[in-house]
Design brief:
- The complex is a heterodimer of chains A (116) and B (111).
- Chain A has no helices and eleven strands.
- Chain A is mainly β.
- Helices cover 0% and strands 62% of the residues of chain B.
- In chain B, a hairpin with a 2-residue loop joins β9 and β10.
- Classes of the chains: A mainly beta (116), B mainly beta (111).
- At the A-B interface, β5, β9 and β10 of A face β4, β5, β9 and β10 of B.
Chain lengths: 116, 111
């Protein structure tokens, strides 16, 4: 079945530094990928839609200059959290739709970010 | 704007019981309804996907139903096992928003 990977699985960084998270589709091409954020005991909230070869579309309230998304190939999207702060500590999950008509999505295993 | 609600928020049952998790959504114009399982600190595992034209889907001990007109979906788990303990999330796809998630139901199956 379709597999989506994320790297790293967890990362600890100091406040003010930047962190890059990778999302890869391993056995299929994904022109679109989605980035979600999940705070403890909360649901997943869509942050942005990553489009291969074009600019990402951000959800309302998500700062595009803080969460930089690059989708340079059909199998890789990256999310860079710039100038990270403790409130950015969260679980970041990416997904990719396998079927555009059904929107069925495959999810990566997630990245736990802790900003100290 | 689509909103998804799941009840109960938490559920604890003895092993072997059959149980039902509920999911409701406000906008019935959905493309599909997807149920996921999430273990603590882990990503999502897709359990069942119900297309808008379907009424139910089954996979092993799991059965999910969809009633678009009432804006409801249920996940039925038969003969629950301790390994079923996890958070179960439902998500609706409608409009231009890919997935809108409920807050989940935390299930504990006690041996």
């Amino acid at each position: 079945g379709a597999v989506v990977s994320q790297h790293p699985s967890w990362v600890i960084c100091k406040s003010g530094t930047s962190v890059k998270i990778e999302c890869r589709s391993l056995d299929f091409q994904a022109t679109t990928m989605f980035w979600y954020r999940q705070f403890p005991k909360q649901s997943l909230m869509l942050m942005a839609t990553s489009n291969e070869g074009s600019k990402a579309t951000y959800e309302q309230g998500v700062e595009k200059d803080k969460f930089l998304i690059n989708h340079a190939s059909l199998t890789l999207s990256t999310l860079t959290v710039t100038s990270a702060h403790p409130e950015d500590s969260s679980f970041y999950i990416c997904s990719a739709p396998i079927d555009r008509s059904s929107y069925e999505q495959y999810f990566g295993p997630g990245t736990r970010l802790t900003v100290t | 704007k689509q909103e998804v609600t799941q009840i109960p928020a938490a559920l604890s049952v003895p092993e072997g019981e059959n149980l039902v998790l509920n999911c409701s959504f406000t906008d019935s114009a959905i493309y599909n309804l997807q149920w996921f399982r999430q273990d603590p600190g882990k990503g999502l595992t897709s359990l069942l996907l119900i297309q808008s034209s379907q009424r139910e889907q089954t996979s092993g001990r799991l059965n999910a139903s969809l009633d678009k007109s009432s804006g409801r979906s249920t996940l039925y788990i038969a003969a629950s096992q301790p390994g079923d303990s996890a958070t179960y999330l439902c998500a609706a796809v409608s409009g231009n928003t890919p997935l809108v998630f409920g807050k989940g139901t935390r299930l504990s199956v006690i041996a």
